[in-house]
Design brief:
With 419 residues, the chain is of the alpha+beta class. 15% of the residues lie in helices and 35% in strands. The chain has two domains: 218 residues, Thrombin, subunit H (Beta Barrel); 93 residues, Roll (Pdz3 Domain).
Length: 419
């Protein structure tokens, strides 16, 4: 039988261990940032006197030089095109050199280089500047972020925290064009917002998918860090993890986030995270920091959630979130070797008398093991699943009750306003 884990269990009660997650705060930058750059020159120290080598060191150097000779030979062969043939090729070296035989394989489906991705994606990236006072375009900006062109008729995605609390917003394209922007709507729960500008013929970004991605796949971040002039910035990394819960403030968490090691800095919030072909897989939103500074990890809102939220904002100007109406606790099951593993989300309470869960006849102690066909190991899996659905949609749950497995369908309700 499942047994509860030690200590607090709900996903909302979790704490990060030694790592704080923070969004780009507003204001992001002073009105006219003056970035501090590392000089490209330095005073070179005086060289130390050369010292003689001991016999043992001379012997080691001789071995090293032999290995270096093999390495140089391989490099020359590659540079000369001798190893381009897909068939196995043997390089011949001196009798004392061990030559490794390698097979050079050309993958016809290899992704394009980052330069090709840049040519495709950069025209769809804008700088978002926010401020107060002045007219629609000429105002004193106190912060900046990034945005992604969603449609050719003027809709642009950015983060909620980029435009929160502002009265003036403008976007700047890569060629220097500046447009006054209006906020169509925003959603603090998912940290997404949609802007609109009076322009046509824009180049929208291609929408991709996270379903076929794996850890280690190419991830490229494109945004406008630190509000620097001169156009968008591109950084290359990989998809580091899926379904991260990121604490971005008091009692506020983002669920189902993509993690990447592609550098993301202040001002890049609202920019694009794309795959190796240049298709959008997420909107960059947060970075991991500790007392030592940035930790080299960033987080992006997955494109599937971006599509759902932005579609609803464009259609209605607002977002209604689906709601199951339960309090969940991660359930752990003890194994024969003494280990305990998560096996589902246990219903420990109900929220509201007319919640979707109550209407469907769910009971305290029921263990949710699948949500609309997807395996559930923790309560986060249920939260991530619900946030991708609209109010009123029907989902199927698979549960365990008193050791018996059963399925039920229910219609999702609407999340009540936060107190």
């Amino acid at each position: 039988m499942p047994v509860p884990p030690p200590g607090p269990g709900p996903a909302e009660a979790g704490e990060t261990s030694g790592l704080l997650f923070e969004r780009d705060p507003l204001p992001h930058l002073p009105p006219s940032p003056s970035p501090r750059l590392q000089p490209l020159w330095w005073d070179e120290p005086e060289p130390e006197p050369r010292r003689g080598l001991r016999p043992a060191a001379v012997a080691m150097l001789a071995v090293a030089s032999g290995l270096l000779g093999a390495a140089v030979l391989s490099i020359v062969l590659v540079a000369a095109g001798e190893l381009d043939d897909p068939a196995p090729t043997t390089a011949v070296g001196p009798p004392t050199t061990v030559v490794e035989i390698r097979e050079i394989i050309t993958d016809g489906d290899a992704p394009p280089p980052a330069s090709a991705v840049a040519r495709k994606v950069v025209p769809s990236i804008v700088t978002v500047e926010v401020g107060r006072g002045g007219d629609a375009v000429e105002f004193d900006a106190f912060g900046s972020g990034s945005g992604v062109v969603l449609s050719d008729d003027g809709f642009i995605i950015t983060n909620h925290h980029v435009i929160e609390g502002t009265t003036r917003t403008r976007v700047i394209f890569q060629d220097g064009r500046v447009y006054a922007a209006d906020v169509v709507g925003s959603d603090p729960l998912t940290d997404l917002a949609v802007l609109t500008i009076d322009a046509r013929g824009l180049r929208p970004i291609d929408l991709g998918s996270t379903d076929g991605l794996s850890i280690g796949d190419t991830a490229i971040a494109v945004g406008n860090p630190l509000g620097l002039r001169g156009g968008a910035s591109l950084t290359v990394g990989v998809v580091s993890a899926f379904d991260r819960e990121v604490n971005v403030g008091p009692q506020t968490s983002l669920f189902g986030m993509l993690q990447t090691d592609a550098p993301i800095t202040q001002g890049s919030s609202g920019g694009a995270l794309v795959d190796g072909s240049g298709s959008l897989i997420g909107i960059t939103s947060a970075i991991g920091v500790s007392s030592a500074g940035a930790e080299g990890i960033g987080f992006a809102i997955p494109v599937e959630l971006v599509q759902r939220i932005t579609d609803e904002i464009i259609a209605t100007g607002d977002v209604r979130h689906a709601f199951l109406g339960v309090q969940l606790l991660d359930s752990l099951e003890e194994q024969t070797d003494g280990a305990r593993i998560p096996v589902g989300a246990s219903i420990e309470g109900f929220v509201g008398d007319d919640s979707a869960a109550r209407a469907a006849g769910l009971q305290l102690g029921d263990l949710i093991v699948r949500f609309d066909g997807q395996a559930v190991r923790t309560s986060d899996d249920v939260i991530i699943g619900i946030r991708r659905y609209r109010v009123g949609q029907t989902v199927e749950l698979e549960l365990l009750r008193d050791g018996e497995r059963f399925t039920t369908e229910l219609q999702l309700g609407e999340r009540p306003p936060d107190p």
